[in-house]
Amino acid sequence: MEDDDKPVGRVLTRRKALAVFGAAGVTFTAVGTAIAADASTSTTKAVDCVAKPEMTEGPYFVDEGLNRSDLRVDTSDGSRVAGTTFTLVLHILQVGSKACTPLPGATVDLWHCDAAGVYSDIAAEGTTGKNFLRGYQVTNSGGIVKFTTILPGWYQGRTVHTHVKVRTTGTDGNPYEFTSQLFFTEEFKAGYLATAPYAAEGTPDTTNDADIHYADIGDQMLLQAKQTRNGYEAAFAIALDLSDTGVGADDAFSMPGGGGGTPPTGTPPTGTPPTGTPPSATPVA
Questions:
Q1: Which of 51, 53, 49, 52 lies closest to 25, judged by CA?
Q2: pLDDT in tens, 156-185
C-alpha cells in the first residue's frame, strides 16, 4: 500500500532544477510569476519553467468525468457550494531539450473539500452521488486552464490544500500522470478562514509546516492569491518532464473512496476508478 506520509515521484528543488534545465538552455523566471488571467487565450506574460514535486493523490480523488470550468455547482441537485469565490489559472508546460513550451491537450483535474472540510462523492462523508468542487479542463494551445471554485476549508490533520492532477502522454507514447497539491500562505488562510462560512469550523489544527505533505517541498506548490472584485485569484505554472517515467506513472491511491465515475473522453487511462470508502480516522488526503 502506498505510504501516504511521503511525497511520491521525483522531487527537484529549485537549485537542482536550475542546474538540470539551465544546462539545456531553458529560461527560468521566478516561481509564482503571474500568467495570463484569461485562459481563453494562448499567450502568457511569462513562463515559469521550474519542475514541481509530486505528492500523493490521497483517498479522495474520484474520476467524475466532469469537463467544466466552474466547480461550484453540484450537478446532482443544482445547488451551489457556499464559500469565497476563487479563480485558479494553471499553465501546464513541457520541458524540452532546449526550451520549455506550453503543453496543449492535457487533462487537468482539480478537487478539494468545501468550507466545512467535506469532499463530495465520498461514502464515509455522506456525500455519495454529489460532485461539488470536482472537475477537469483540457489545456488550450497555450497550455492554460482556468477554474472557478471556492477557497477550500480544512479538516483534522491537514493544512488547507487543493489537489491537482495532469494527464497526458509521455515521450514514450504511454499515459503520463502528474499529481500534486497546492497550498496557501498562513497569513492568507488566517484571513479568509475567519470569515463566513469558514469561521464556523474554528481554527485549523494543522499549519503548513506541521503538515505531513507540505514538509520540505510544499513551499514549491504555494499559491500567491490576490483579491479581486469577486473574491480571490491565483496563477501557477507546472512544468513537466514527459520523459520521466517515474513521475509519469499511474498515481492511483491504493485506498480510494467515492463512487467513481466515467473517465474524461479522450484522456489517457489512469487505472480503475476509485471504489470503496476511505478510512474514517484522520484524513490524510
A1: 49
A2: 999 999 999 999 999 999 999 999 999 999
Half-sphere exposure of residue 156, counting CA atoms within 13 Å on the CB side?
4
**Residue 218: exposure state from Cβ atoms within 10 A (0-12, 13-18, ≥19):** buried
Q: Which domain covers residue 55, as residue numbers?
A: 14-244
DSSP 124: G
Cell of 148: 472557478
Which pairing describes strands 85-95 and 134-138: parallel, antiparallel, or unpaired? unpaired
Q: For residue range 247-276, what is the model confidence (pLDDT) as tens digits?
A: 999 998 754 333 333 333 334 333 333 333
Cell of 115: 468550507
Give the CATH number, domain containing residue 27: 2.60.130.10
- 51, part of any domain: yes
- Residue 66 belongs to some domain of the structure: yes
Q: Provide CB contacts within 8 A for 49, sequence distance 6+.
A: 21, 26, 27, 28, 29, 93, 95, 100, 237, 239
Beta bridge partners of 233: 87, 226
Element (H, E) at 190: helix 186-193
Q: Which three cell numbers stand for residue 175?
A: 499515459
**pTM higher than 0.90, yes or no?**
no
Instruction: Give the span between the Cα atoms of 184 and 226, in whole angstroms.
Output: 11
* Structural domains counted in the chain: 1
Buried b or exposed e, range 223-252, using 16+ CB within 10 angstroms: bebeeeeebbbbbbbbbbbbebeebbbbbb
Using alpha carbons, select from 183, 191, 190 the residue that is nearest to residue 222.
183
Q: How many angstroms separate the CA atoms of 88 and 248, rounded?
A: 23
Half-sphere exposure of 216 (CA within 13 A, CB side): 11
Q: Give the angle 52-207-192 at the CA atoms, nearest 5°.
A: 95
